[in-house]
Design brief:
The chain is an all-alpha fold. The chain is built from 26 helices and no strands. Helix 14 runs antiparallel to helix 15. The N and C termini lie far apart (66 Å).
């Protein structure tokens, strides 16, 4: 029986918000969760907020601007000194990193009967590193169950009892899986403890949140940069700058990542081009083709893969006796190598297709002929995953994340000089790798053109 997907919940109607706007901080937080829950609801709500601003309705403009994360506009429009106005003002300062202003705005609000306002006061004090003020306010703050656990965890952190704090944060998430501060703090702690995988997983869980918090984007961008994933890092920092062009920290990080991205592509592109040219020199005779296809290519004087990908589909189909059947046959061959027709540019160079995998597109044993005859144990070792080598984090990242290698044999396609030319891969990493390879009877080429001599 085929499964039927459950229908998605309809997008929240902004008309309900503006017809009966929130009157308390708690209600405003709930509205944020409801209207920022999915892209459709967010788009409709943002459009309604723009109309409210254009209509000069400051009250609705302040409420709506805060919900969509446009904190500067929320501050411009907010009026009065009600608890709701204080909450919008203080939390807007907080989200913009103006923690001292937030603390001043929330002065005494920890005693409020509104749990959202009381929690916001404690968040502001922690943001301003006012530990003494936080501990004093925490004792009298009225909080909901999840926030009670969360701020108890923060007290444990202040006492440097980090293990207990992490356990308490786990309780927060178990009680309220959507608790933003609890999830963020878990990610932050995982990052500090060096558990990058957990930190990234937790931070990435916020990417469906609208608006994505600046703190999430900055911290996630730094983690991506540490993993040499400069493209994603630039995406995170760029998202912050689109929202706040004056964010100096995001600007600094974006510049560093962008410069590294350029350097990364320049170095890896050269290595990938070398592998592509080796593949393109492969003779057509190496492939199992039908007699018709082989004869057609021979008549066209197409002798190698390089000759073949220099032609487009229309050009091949113009040749006599070369039809769709032969075309599909050679396209399957090219696909297996990550290649396609029409790769040759007008200047004679070749386009590198995105699907081209340098390591998988070569005859590994042929490329490693310089090693000499391979034993069965060596062949098995070449097919092992790189993770089985138990390399250091730095060395593993350079091979798996930067060069996108998977098998031990893929590593041997690069020489010592190739690897030492990469950023963050020094002689220590090289020696570590060489020692691991020796255990399997393998080694790297020095880069000086050594060949097996049979001696």
């Amino acid at each position: 029986m085929s499964q039927v997907e459950a229908p998605q919940a309809p997008a929240a109607d902004p008309a309900a918000f503006f017809a009966a706007p929130p009157s308390t901080p708690f209600d405003l937080v709930q509205a944020h969760k409801r209207f920022m829950a999915d892209a459709d609801s967010t788009d409709k709500f943002e459009s309604a907020v723009r109309e409210a601003r254009a209509g000069g309705n400051n009250t609705m403009a302040a409420l709506g601007s805060w919900v969509v994360g446009d904190y500067a506009k929320a501050l411009e429009a907010v009026e009065g000194d009600s608890e709701l106005s204080v909450f919008i003002t203080g939390m807007s300062h907080y989200e913009m990193g103006q923690y001292d202003l937030a603390v001043n705005t929330f002065s005494g609000c920890e005693k409020s009967g509104d749990t959202a306002l009381a929690a916001a006061t404690l968040h502001a004090l922690l943001g301003a590193n006012n530990t003494e003020g936080f501990e004093k306010a925490h004792g009298s703050a009225k909080l909901d169950a999840a926030d009670t656990l969360y701020f108890a965890a923060r007290v444990l952190e202040i006492e440097r009892n980090y293990e207990a704090a992490m356990a308490k944060l786990e309780e927060v998430i178990e009680l309220d899986p959507e608790h933003f501060a609890g999830r963020f703090r878990l990610a932050y702690r995982a990052d500090l403890f060096g558990d990058d995988e957990a930190a990234i997983r937790l931070y990435e869980s916020f990417l469906l949140t609208r608006p994505i918090p600046v703190s999430v984007l900055v911290n996630l961008g730094v983690l991506y940069e540490d993993r040499n994933d400069f493209e994603r890092a630039c995406g995170c920092f760029g998202a912050v700058l689109r929202r706040d062009p004056n964010n100096a920290l995001a600007r600094l990080f974006f510049t560093d990542s962008h410069d590294s991205l350029d350097m990364f592509y320049d170095e890896n592109l050269e290595l990938k081009e070398d592998q592509l040219m080796k593949v393109l020199r492969t003779p057509i005779s190496d492939f199992e083709l039908s007699v018709r296809a082989r004869n057609c290519l021979s008549n066209m004087d197409i002798k190698s893969l390089g000759d073949l990908v220099s032609h487009s589909e229309p050009e091949l189909l113009e040749f006599k006796n070369f039809g769709e059947t032969s075309l599909n046959e050679i396209k399957r061959v090219l696909t297996q190598k990550g290649l396609r027709l029409g790769m040759r540019r007008e200047d004679g160079s070749f386009i590198i297709p995105e699907e081209f995998d340098a390591a998988r597109s070569v005859d590994l044993e042929a490329e490693l002929a310089w090693l000499g005859p391979l034993s069965e144990e060596m062949r098995e070792a070449l097919e092992l995953q790189i993770s089985t080598l138990n390399l250091s984090v730095r060395c593993h990242r350079a091979l798996v994340e930067r060069l996108n290698l998977q098998r031990v044999g893929d590593i041997l396609l690069y020489s010592e000089e190739d690897l030492l030319g990469m950023p963050n891969f020094g002689i220590t990493s090289l020696n570590e790798l060489q020692n691991k390879l020796v255990d399997f009877g393998l080694r790297l080429r020095s880069g000086r053109g050594e060949e097996y001599t049979g001696e």
